[in-house]
Amino acid sequence: MFKSQLTSVFFMLLFALSPIYGDFELLELVSTWPATFCYAYGCSRRRPIPNNFTIHGLWPDNKSIILNNCNVANKERYIKIEDPKKLTELDKRWPQLRYDKLYGIDKQYLWEKEFLKHGTCSINRYKQAAYFDLAMNIKDRFDLLGTLRNHGINPGSTYDLDDIERAIKTVSIKVPSLKCIEKPPGNVELNEIGICLDPEAKYTVPCPRTGSCHELGPRIKFR
Ligand SMILES: *[C@@H]1O[C@H](CO)[C@@H](O)[C@H](O)[C@H]1NC(C)=O
Ligand SMILES: *[C@@H]1O[C@H](CO)[C@@H](O)[C@H](O)[C@H]1NC(C)=O
């Protein structure tokens, strides 16, 4: 064969072997502020409510459309996590706040829901174990509470949305997604922070949807 033919065979092989690109365009790690979440929705896990941001989920997404429930052929099943070390690691970063700790670890309702609703949207790239490992890995890269504190934003007070966003941008680099709840009317609280990354989670990208705080603000309580 000529060298050019060899070269094109090589590139065809490379293409065939490379991971599947193009199923989703970005990853959003959504972190919950437990005090607000538990105030708004109620938690069984109350002793104590974690005093740090915890994972809500890792959401593969597209810029122009929200991806959910990609398990169309219904062939993905959630495999219950049994490894005690993994369970401890997950429970530390991704506690299932609605449930008592042991009940949550036994039933795994939140983890299963997040995997089936969101994890299936990145399944060609991240199988179940990789999906959970990646979420924990990203969580460990962002100390959101420390970042807010470093910018004078502490639990127990109310701040301008712009100041909260400016603080988060020092670590997200790009526009984050800030999600608020309003309860009762007039009381707007920071509930979640979304940080968006490229599909390989190497660098941050702008979040395509900037979150409900922008409609509910401009004054936001950090409970
Ligand atoms: C999401 O984006 C990827 C890459 O652009 C594309 O291949 C895929 O079809 C999109 N999914 C939907 C549901 O639009
Ligand atoms: C909060 O979690 C982050 C990881 O996301 C960690 O770096 C930080 O030390 C934690 N802060 C406290 C006060 O536990």
UniProtKB/TrEMBL annotation:
Species per Swiss-Prot/TrEMBL record: Solanum chacoense (Chaco potato)
Signal peptide extent: 1-22
Highest taxon above the source species: Eukaryota
Keywords, sorted A to Z: Disulfide bond, Endonuclease, Glycoprotein, Hydrolase, Lyase, Nuclease, Secreted, Signal
Keyword Lyase: yes
GO annotation, cellular component aspect: extracellular region
Entry-linked PANTHER family: RIBONUCLEASE S-2, RIBONUCLEASE T2
Active site: 56, 114, 118
A biological process term (GO) from this entry: RNA catabolic process
GO molecular function: hydrolase activity; ribonuclease T2 activity; RNA binding
Similarity field: Belongs to the RNase T2 family.
UniProt cross-references to InterPro entries, sorted A to Z: Ribonuclease_T2_eukaryotic, RNase_T2-like, RNase_T2-like_sf, RNase_T2_His_AS_1
Descriptive protein name: Gametophytic self-incompatibility ribonuclease
Record's subcellular location: Secreted, Extracellular space
